[in-house]
Amino acid sequence: MQSVVDALAKAFGGLTAAVAEAASVFAWVVLVTAAAATAWMIVDLLRTPSRRFATADRAAQPNDGILLMGQIMAVAALVAGVVLALQSDSSWWQPLAGLLGGAALLTLIVTYRRSDEDKQARMAPTLWLALAVAMAASTLLAYFLRSGSAIVYLTLLGLTLLIARAWFFLSRPEIRFDPSQLGVAIDSRTDHPLVVEKVGMIYELPDGGQVEALADVSFTLEPGRLLTLLGPSGCGKTTLLNIAAGFLAPTSGEVRLGTEPITGPGQDRGMVFQQGALFEWLSVNDNVGFGARMNGRSRPASREAVQDLLRTVGLQGFGDKAVYELSGGMQQRVALARCLANDPEIILMDEPLGALDALTREKMQGLVLDLWNKTGKTIILVTHSVEEALYLGDQLFVMAPRPGRIERRYDLPFAQQALTTEARELKTSTEFIQTREEILTMIWEMEEQIMGTEGGA
Question: DSSP 3-state assignment of 159?
């Protein structure tokens, strides 16, 4: 029995020695890595012109997580200064360096947090440099404490590496997205028309019956047009939109983008739903940048593109907000930015403004027209509002039900006029009112026919 015990003790001792040796090697690797990262960051900062911070957005500035790490470093320096002051064998400069360094870094972080955005932009290079110096001090302290407390050692190095990673992969100003790149993307014009050819759609009912939602719908939507679909409930507007998106396959006919048949969802088409369909558990930044990251774009580049898109839709400064903190109109702006982030050829909108109050809805109508004018993209928008369909659409289809079909087509001047004319002035013009009343009468007669048919049945 004693021999077994001795053998186990020997084996355990060997295992312990091996683990200790591996830990020692790992510690040295981490220490060297932290030292290299700190040196690289300091050199990089000294080479970075301050103007890049001043003109960059908040992505170039320390975020809350980085500031928290800096605060931990500052507090650790203050505590170390107090402890060293109470020790009789420490030199006079050691507690003084800890107290002054910690107090200076903490003061800088608190001042930064309490400043407005313009002052924060001016302070950003100084704060980053202070964090880099704190990282260098932490690395040196970790070296001198390498034979002491492992917890203190690894904590200091861990904070150092996290800040370095944040600098190089998240917030480095040199990786700033060039606004001209966004201009190229949003000003590009699609060359592919949307061709809808003899499309029909029949829904099979559980009881064996059928509903013919669409019948023989045909049209060609030229690139860069803004088409609005209008009609009574049940006329197949949303069905037609879902077929164009690739969510539904038509029972008959074909839909093509250029010469390519649409057989399913694709990046060449972007959808904006009535309720936004945002990811509630993600921030505004992460919602808008989701598609770009799924397409393999680097996080820094996608983050910078997101900030420019948020400025485009009027949501600058809201990137870190949670979706539930935003109003309905702001959530729809996020949905538009997310759609634009993938640079689709066609933007499909299913009553995107239907749930908004009147004032917000009118502001969002202006935003849709502005984006259409800037991007030159083809847009199809479904709405139940005759006024909205007239105001937004340079082409308008009035659809009739039972089965769904295009009853009347309009080419309208109002969307172009709205780019230079006030909304209220345009919507009260004689031509606008006459066209609105004509379409209202047409839809009202359709509704009367539907009610009469159902009543007769």
Answer: helix
Higher confidence at residue 53 or residue 275? Answer: 275
Residue 37: pLDDT band with limits 50, 70, 90? confident
Q: Are 442 and 431 in contact (CB under 8 A)?
A: no
Coil, strand or helix at 173: helix
Gyration radius of the chain over CA positions = 31
- Written in H, E and C, the secondary structure of 310-374 is HHHCCCCCCCCCEHHHCCHHHHHHHHHHHHHHCCCCEEEEECCCCCCCHHHHHHHHHHHHHHHHH
pTM score, whole prediction: 0.56
Structure tokens at 284: 């505004």
Residue 403: asked if its preceding bond is cis (omega within 30°), the reply is yes
Residue type for position 23: A
According to DSSP, the β-strands at 194-204 and 210-221 are antiparallel
- Locate the domains of the chain by residue range: 21-176, 190-268+344-456, 280-340
The model's pLDDT over 135-157, given as tens digits with 9 standing for 90+, comes to: 777 777 666 665 555 555 566 66
Amino acid sitting at position 115: S
Residue of 144, 129, 137, 49 whose CA lies nearest to 90: 144
> What pLDDT sits at residue 305?
73
- 347 within 8 A of 270, measured Cβ to Cβ: yes
Of all helices (H) and strands (E), which one includes residue 229? Answer: strand 226-230
- Asked if 218 contacts 405 with a C-beta cutoff of 8 angstroms, the reply is no
Q: Residue with structure tokens 């170390």?
A: 80
Token pair of 263, please? 């057989």
- For CA atoms 357, 362, 367, 369, give the dihedral sign: positive
Fold for the domain defined by 190-268+344-456: Rossmann fold (3.40.50)
Q: What is the pLDDT averaged over residues 331-339?
A: 83
β-bridge partners, 211: 203
49-64 confidence digits (pLDDT tens): 665 555 444 455 676 6
Q: Please, are residues 217 and 198 in contact by the beta-carbon 8 Å criterion? A: yes
Residue whose entry in the numeric block shows the structure tokens 């077994």: 4
Conformation bin of residue 333: beta by default, left when phi > 0, alpha when psi is -120 to 50: alpha
